[in-house]
Specification:
single chain, alpha+beta, 2 domains, globular, disordered N terminus
Length: 406
C-alpha cells in the first residue's frame, strides 16, 4: 500500500490502493499468483480443445477450487468440518474443472515446498484416487482420513472464541472496528445502506439463527467499515459489520461480525442446458447450499446500492487452510484428503447412476504406471507453464512500476 500502515484510505481513494495491494500479493510467489488469478485459469480453459477434457454430470462446482478456498467451517449448531469455503465462482458446470484447478494449486504448492517433480506426479495421482473414493461412497470417511497438516487447522478451529476472532480480525475485543491498514471509512451512502439492510427481517433472522440467540432479539449496527481483504476479489465491495444482538450485547453470543461481499459475474463456464439464478448473489448462496451446506445455511443474498451482495456471520471456527511448506508424505495425504472433500461435495449432487459413470470416465486414458488420467496431467502441465510465464512477467512489471502490473 502507498499509505503508512497506521493510516487508512478514504472511501473515494480506494481504487488505487486496492490495485497496488493486489499486485503486491500476486508478486509474492507463484502459488499466490495462481490463487489470485482465476481469470488466467479460465482463459486457458477457453482456448483448450473442448474434447480434451471429459464432461462430467452437471453439478454445482466451486469454480475456483484452490487450497486457500478449503478449510474448517462451522455450521449453525457449532459442528466443524473441512468444506469449500469460498464460492464466488460457483456455477452448475463440469466437475472436471474443479479437479484441474485443485491439481494446479497442489502442484504450485509442491513447487513452493521444493518437492521433486516425481512427488508432484504422485500427489496428483493421490488426488484422483481420493476423488474417486468419494464417488464410490455416499458418505466417505472424511474424519478418519484427515492428514496431520489439515488436522492441525481443524484443531485450531475447535475451541476458538469471539475473543480470538476479535483479536485476529479487529485487533481488540472492544465493540468497534479500528480503522487502519485493513479497515477503511465508509461513504455516507454505504453507511446508510448497511443500516437499511440490518433493519430488514431477513437480515435479523440470519443473525439470530446462530448461537442459540432468541428469535425476537433486536439487532443493532455498532460499527462498520470497508474491508480490504482477499486477492482476486480486491476492488469489489467488501464490508465488515459489527452487530450487537439483544439488549445486553456484551454477554456471550451478543456480538457478531458480518462479512458482506459483492457478487459479480462468474468467470467459470456454466453448463448451457442448466438453469441458475440470474442474480449473482443468489447464485453464490445457492451454490454454497449444494457444495458446503454448513456454510450455505449461514448465508443471505441481498441488494446493496443496486449491486448483488451476499453476507454471512464470521464464526471464530472459520479458518483458511494454509499449507505453505509441506513434506512429501504430507503432500500426498493432503492431496488425497482434499480431493475427497471436493469429491463428496460433487457426489452428493449426483444420482446413483451418474456417480459410477463419472468414476469410470475418470479411470480412462491412464498410463500404465500413473493413476491419473492423461488429460488431467497434461492440463496441469500446460497451466503450470503458462502461469509461471505470466507470474514472472507480472513480477517484471511490478518491479518496473507497481501500478502497471496486471
Amino acid at each position: 500500500m502507498s499509505k503508512a500502515e497506521n493510516t487508512y484510505v478514504q472511501w473515494n481513494e480506494r481504487a488505487g490502493s486496492l490495485r497496488d495491494t493486489r499486485n503486491l500479493k500476486m508478486a509474492g510467489s507463484a502459488h499466490a499468483y495462481v490463487r489470485g488469478n482465476t481469470l488466467k485459469f479460465y482463459e486457458w480453459l477457453g482456448t483448450t480443445d473442448s474434447g480434451k477434457i471429459p464432461q462430467g454430470p452437471p453439478v454445482w462446482i466451486c469454480g475456483d477450487c484452490h487450497l486457500g478456498n478449503l478449510g474448517p467451517i462451522a455450521d449453525t449448531d457449532g459442528r466443524i468440518d473441512i468444506q469449500i469455503r469460498d464460492l464466488d465462482q460457483t456455477v452448475i458446470g463440469n466437475p472436471a474443472h474443479d479437479l484441474i484447478r485443485l491439481g494446479l494449486s497442489l502442484a504450485t504448492a509442491a513447487r513452493g515446498s521444493d518437492l521433486p517433480g516425481v512427488t508432484t506426479a504422485r500427489m496428483i495421482e493421490q488426488m484422483v484416487l481420493g476423488y474417486e473414493e468419494a464417488l464410490t461412497d455416499e458418505s466417505p470417511d472424511l474424519h478418519g482420513r484427515r492428514p496431520q497438516c489439515v488436522d492441525v487447522a481443524l484443531q485450531q478451529a475447535v475451541g476458538r472464541t469471539w475473543r480470538h476472532l476479535a483479536k485476529e480480525r479487529l485487533e481488540d475485543t472492544k465493540p468497534t472496528i479500528p480503522l487502519g491498514k485493513k479497515f477503511w471509512p465508509l461513504s455516507p451512502e454505504e453507511r446508510a445502506e448497511i443500516e437499511r439492510i440490518f433493519a430488514t427481517e431477513e437480515a435479523r433472522r440470519l443473525v439470530t439463527g446462530l448461537r442459540s440467540r432468541k428469535d425476537s432479539a433486536r439487532v443493532e449496527v455498532l460499527d462498520a467499515a470497508y474491508w480490504m481483504k482477499g486477492c482476486s476479489s480486491l476492488g469489489r465491495l467488501r464490508f465488515a459489520v459489527l452487530l450487537g444482538v439483544g439488549k445486553n450485547h456484551r454477554k456471550k453470543g451478543g456480538l457478531c461480525l458480518i462479512d458482506i461481499k459483492e457478487a459479480t459475474q462468474a468467470a467459470a463456464p456454466r453448463r448451457a442446458e442448466t438453469e441458475m439464478p440470474r442474480d449473482n448473489a443468489l447464485r453464490v448462496v445457492e451454490g454454497a447450499r449444494h457444495l458446503s451446506p454448513a456454510l450455505g445455511e449461514r448465508m443471505l443474498a441481498a441488494r446493496f446500492l443496486d449491486r448483488g451482495v451476499f453476507m454471512r456471520e464470521l464464526l471464530p471456527e472459520d479458518l483458511k487452510l494454509e499449507i505453505e511448506r509441506i513434506s512429501r508424505e504430507e503432500a500426498m495425504n493432503a492431496a488425497h484428503y482434499l480431493a475427497m472433500v471436493v469429491g463428496a461435495a460433487h457426489a452428493r449432487q449426483m444420482s446413483a447412476l451418474d456417480r459410477p459413470k463419472w468414476r469410470e470416465e475418470l479411470k480412462l486414458h491412464r498410463s500404465a504406471n500413473l493413476e491419473a488420467p492423461n488429460w488431467l496431467w497434461s492440463s496441469i502441465l500446460e497451466l503450470m507453464a503458462s502461469h509461471e510465464v505470466a507470474y514472472l512477467e507480472h513480477c517484471r512489471k511490478y518491479a518496473a512500476n507497481p501500478e502497471l502490473a496486471a
